[in-house]
Amino acid sequence: MKKEIIDKLYSLHRFGIKPGLERIIDLLTAVGNPHSNLKTIHIAGTNGKGSTSSLIASILMEAGLKVGLYTSPHLIRFNERIKINGEEIDDDILIDLTKKYLPFSEKLSATFFEITTAIAFDFFSSQNVDIAIIETGMGGRFDATNVITPLVSVITSISLEHKEYLGDTVEKIAFEKAGIIKDHVPVIVSCKDEKIINVIKSVAAEKNSNYLEAEELETVIQHQFLPDLSTDVCVNFNGNLAYTKLPLPGAHQIDNLELALSALLQTDFDLSLENVSDGISRVKENTGLSTRIELIKSDPKFIIDSAHNEAAVKSLVDTLSTHLPDIKYNVTFAAMSDKDIRALLQLLKPICKQLILTQPKIARAASVEDLNDIAQELGYTNIVSTHNTVDAVNNLNFESNNLVVGSFYLTGEILDLLNKI
């Protein structure tokens, strides 16, 4: 029953990506606007949304709050997208809500993400969550989630992505992401690019929104990267210092932590220093966050990461070079056809010993033949081509250092297969 219903939900991909809020507004209005009574924190950006959302949720959970968390995409199960206090939405509830909303898909031509967002809002409202952490999908201004008025808006790092929908410059993309800023609602930003900052500042000024840069709030005082792919951090929360461990490696995760703490400082939740410290160190256990440069085997190394664009892959390579210098990997790689595959493979080349190419089960995936052609043009010589992730896993050498990277769809399928071994 669940597979049949979820397959019907996935079939809504036929409506494609259609920017605009008209359908989601009509859809939510028809069912009584379940989002209208939710307290929320709204997060947009190119990279770091999932980590920042999870850090915020984890800290609030440690304070004893009932916390909804809406993220995308999922890795293995659709239910991963919609959680309360780390627990995925129950199958029976998901089936009932999907049945409730599917008829609107035909009537309104609502898309997969619009229906999914309505389901999340309905579930969080019916379960009376204290706060819902809402991650945007692709954009911001016309994203289906952008019907909420949050306590605070959060914008993570921004780089070129989805140019056919969001624009072909970082300024245009920043304008779309800044669309989540609401009147008189503070916005917290993590960005060092003056062009992007100017765009977001301009939108914030139009909305009379208090614009804040996370770095300037100095919520992370010190950090030290460790070989086990964790980071010792000293954080400053409301003038009080705490030493804890951030189980997410890389300088970009320090930026995400600064964002999360800065966002929470704009709310009136009663958070102790212990809540903050424990929420940081337990973010994976509390929220199920995974595949963020995740070390799943230490000797030899087996690392899995969902980086799928240039900025994220560069952060991955920089992080591995810092935490684990002078190590090369057998790299299992796949990518969606709309990505700059040449740029991704060029970035990975310095840390790659063998390249294993594959193709996840999604229509958007680039073909192995295209990946192979690009890899050869870039000078890769030790290449293994596999036409599905089952074959890719069968070609893994667990006696060597391995890295899986390139797409959420790839890491999800690989994780699922590894769990069954």
Provide key terms for this protein.
421 residues, 41% helix, eight-stranded mixed β-sheet, 17 helices, alpha/beta, six-stranded mixed β-sheet
Low-confidence stretches: none
Shape: globular
Helical amount: 40-55%
Strand content: 15-25%
How many strands in all? 17
- The count of helical stretches stands at 17
Rg on CA atoms, Å: 21 Å
Short summary:
The chain is 41% helix and 18% strand. The protein is of the alpha/beta class. The longest helix has 18 residues.
Fold and architecture overview:
The structure is a single chain. The protein starts with a helix and ends with a helix. It is globular and about 55 Å long. The protein has an 8-stranded mixed beta sheet with strand order 4-3-2-5-1-6-7-8, with helices on both faces. The protein has a 6-stranded mixed beta sheet with strand order 12-13-17-14-15-16, sandwiched between helices. It has a 3-stranded antiparallel beta sheet with strand order 9-10-11, with helices on one face. It is 41% helix and 18% strand. It is α/β, with parallel strands linked by helices and 421 residues long. The mean pLDDT is 93. The protein has helices spanning 2-10, 22-30, 49-62, 91-108, 112-126, 163-166, 170-177, 194-206, 214-217, 251-265, 273-281, 283-287, 310-323, 341-348, 368-377, 389-394, 408-419, and strands at residues 40-44, 67-70, 82-84, 87-88, 131-135, 152-155, 187-189, 211-213, 220-225, 231-237, 240-246, 294-298, 301-304, 329-333, 352-357, 383-385, 402-405.
